[in-house]
Amino acid sequence: MVIVMHANAAPEDIQAVVARIEELGLKPHLSTGSERTIIGAIGEGTVASQYMQHFIVLPGVDRVIPISRPYKLASREFSACDTQFKVGDVTLGSNQIVLIAGPCSVESRTQTLEVAHAIKEAGANMLRGGAYKPRSSPYSFQGLGQAGLEILADVRAETGLPIVTEVMAPEMVPLVASFADMLQIGARNMQNYPLLNAVGESQRPVLLKRGLSATIEELLMAAEYVLSHGNRQVALCERGIRTFETATRNTTDINAIPVLKAQSHLPIFLDPSHSTGNWQYVGAVARAGIAAGADGLIVEVHMHPERALSDGGQSLKPERFAEMVRQVRLIAEAVGRELTPVS
Ligand code: PEP
Ligand code: MN
To answer: Is the model's pLDDT at 309 over the cut of 70?
Structure first.
C-alpha cells in the first residue's frame, strides 16, 4: 500500500508512519516529492493492504492507496510524478529527450574514441558500448572485458560523455560500477534476480532492457527487484520482442511505451537498433518511439559497420545517425518536447 501524507505533514508525522510500518513487520520506502511525501509499505508474503486502517487514522496522513499489482515501487500509484535522475550531467525522465549512442561493442580505443566524437557532434548525450557481451553463440566475440571498461573511462575523460555499459553477473557489479555512469542489464538477463538485486544495492543508475519474451508486467517486476533493493534510479528500455515475424530481428512493441508510461513513473527508452536488427529501419522506428512518448533512445553507431565485431548490420554510420537526430528533433517538437542539448 502507499500512504500519501498531507502537503503540510510534520516530519514527526512522517516518522510516526515509518515507525508504525516497521512495527507491523513491513518495509517503508519514502519518496519525498517537492509537495508531499509518500510512503510505500511493502510486506514480504503479507498483503500490506490489510493494515490500511492502521494508517488512515494517523496524524498527517491524507490517504492510503492499496496496490494490488505484483510491483509497487515501480507503479504509477507510487508516484504520480515522472521519476527524474541524473547520469553524469544528463537528466533522464524530464521533458528533454536523451540520446544514447555508440558501438555495440568496445573494440579498441581508437574505434570508441572516434565514434564518441562523431555521435557527440551529431547530438548524442551519452555513450554506449559493451565491454562484456552476452552473445547468443559462445564462439562470437565476447567483449574486451576490463580493458573495454578502461577504454570507456578514457573516452569519457576525452569527450565528457557519460557512459552506459552492460554488467552480466552480480559479482561483476562493483567493478563495472567503478567505471560506468550507468549499468545496463541486457535483455537476456532481465530475469537474473541475483543480478537485479546486486545492481539494486549499487548507487549507479540502471538501464533495464526488456527480456526477449518478457511481458510488460514482467519487465516492471524486474524493475521492482532493483527498486526494492534501494536503487531508485532505474530507466526501462523496450528493445523489441520475439514474435512470429522474421522480416526483422525482433518486433518493436511500440505499445509498450504508452503502456509503461501509464503504469509506471520510470523513464522509458527505446532501442530501435536491437528491435529492428537492420540499420535501414532504425530511423523510422526511432521517430515512432519519440512520437509514442519515449524519454530517450539508445542507438548503435559504428564508423565502419561492415567491420563491426558485433551487430554491424543494425549499426548506423555517423552521418545516418546525424540524419536520424535531425528527424527525431522535429518529432520531439511536434509532441511538445525537445532534445537535451549537448554540453
Ligand atoms: C546491446 O545493447 O548490445 C545488447 C546486447 O542488447 P540486448 O540485451 O537488448 O540484446
Ligand atoms: Mn548490440
So the answer is: yes
